[in-house]
């Protein structure tokens, strides 16, 4: 169940096994609440929670040498810190803050309890191999739309490094320190919807975020309650709800709903690299557009995001023949 490098998220999470007492609803040291949970099959924390990490310096996500994953999150009940680790018996979690009960109640769903890997049938040799090598892959479901939407908007049409830098700066400057005991990893909770809407233009600029992306985030923050309702909708309705906000298109809604809703069929379109990677992996042809990618993934209808994830994890990517995306830095202008 050890974690591995995940090319989808560029993370390397190694899930350790630190034995702790089991229990549900008990209070742990430092005022934490604690929950133990036994998954119904193999579980790889790195593969499950890795998509929630926005770069190696994400201030809302940390891993520690014992293999624990720490998250700072803003729940409907308030800020919370969640620590998750694997044990000999399954999963042990501790939580702090006003949202502690909320995150512990949602722990199984966060770790893929509502995901159904058995619904996936590999149709290609490469996909079959990748699937067989990763029995612990489950699709996370956070139930929090804005938490996934905002960093996804920051990633629109810029390099990953630029988006990660903007996310770090904005969260640290306008969010708040996550609750928890002394000695925990430095961790933050992202700003509230109101705080996102009130970020001044010069702070967006200093974070390297252009006006198109900042305006999209502000518009989304102003209708945050309506967007959060998408977490309980079926995929077509949820995507339509998000895409009703100007500046949010199919790429952004798919990347968001993969995380907030655990949507196995939310395949990403409009991506610069994904069609070429999938085309090359399945056919050897790298000159593939969105329509051709969707045709290649059609045997996985209902599970296209999972299929794409497994293809990315296989690491069978085409050799680079074009320069990397130009890195802008409007924060220095």
Automatic annotation (TrEMBL):
Q: Determine if Manganese is one of this entry's keywords.
A: no
Q: Where do the segments described as Disordered lie?
A: 1-35
InterPro entries referenced in this protein's UniProt entry, alphabetically: Alkylbase_DNA_Glycosylase/TA (IPR051912), DNA_glycosylase (IPR011257), HhH-GPD_domain (IPR003265)
Q: Which residues cross the membrane?
A: none
- Catalytic reaction list: Hydrolysis of alkylated DNA, releasing 3-methyladenine, 3-methylguanine, 7-methylguanine and 7-methyladenine
The highest taxon in the source lineage is: Bacteria
EC number(s) from the headed UniProt entry: 3.2.2.21
Enzyme type, top EC level: hydrolase
Q: Which keywords are on file for this protein?
A: DNA damage, DNA repair
Query: Which PANTHER family does its entry note?
Result: DNA GLYCOSYLASE, DNA-3-METHYLADENINE GLYCOSYLASE
| Name of the molecule in the record | DNA-3-methyladenine glycosylase II
Which species expresses this protein natively?
Answer: Streptomyces racemochromogenes
């Amino acid at each position: 169940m050890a974690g591995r490098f995940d090319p989808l998220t560029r993370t390397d999470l190694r899930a350790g096994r630190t034995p702790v007492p089991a229990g549900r609803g008990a209070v742990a040291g430092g005022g934490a609440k604690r929950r133990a949970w036994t998954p119904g099959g193999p579980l790889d924390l790195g593969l499950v929670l890795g998509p929630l990490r926005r770069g190696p310096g994400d201030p809302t996500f940390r891993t520690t040498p014992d293999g624990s994953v720490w998250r700072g999150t803003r729940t409907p009940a308030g800020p919370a810190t969640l620590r998750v680790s694997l044990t000999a018996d399954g999963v042990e979690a501790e939580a702090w803050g006003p949202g502690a009960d909320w995150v512990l109640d949602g722990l199984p769903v966060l770790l893929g309890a509502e995901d159904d890997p058995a619904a996936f049938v590999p149709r290609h040799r490469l996909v079959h191999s990748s699937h067989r090598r990763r029995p612990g892959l489950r699709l996370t479901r956070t139930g929090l739309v804005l938490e996934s939407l905002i960093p996804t908007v920051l990633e629109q049409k810029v390099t990953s490094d630029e988006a990660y830098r903007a996310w770090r700066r904005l969260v640290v400057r306008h969010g708040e320190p996550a609750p928890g005991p002394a000695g925990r990893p430095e961790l933050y909770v992202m700003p509230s919807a109101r705080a996102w809407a009130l970020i001044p233009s010069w702070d967006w600029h200093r974070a390297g975020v252009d006006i198109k992306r900042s305006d999209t985030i502000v518009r989304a923050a102003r209708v945050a309650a309506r967007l959060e309702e998408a977490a309980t909708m079926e995929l077509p309705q949820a995507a339509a709800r998000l895409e009703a906000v100007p500046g949010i298109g199919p790429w952004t809604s798919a990347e968001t709903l993969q995380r907030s809703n655990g949507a196995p069929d939310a395949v990403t379109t409009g991506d610069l690299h994904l069609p070429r990677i999938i085309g090359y992996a399945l056919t050897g042809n790298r000159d593939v557009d969105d329509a051709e990618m969707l045709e290649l993934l059609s045997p996985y209808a209902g599970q296209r995001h999972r299929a794409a994830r497994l293809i990315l994890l296989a690491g069978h990517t085409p050799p680079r023949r074009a320069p990397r995306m130009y890195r802008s830095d409007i924060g220095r202008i």
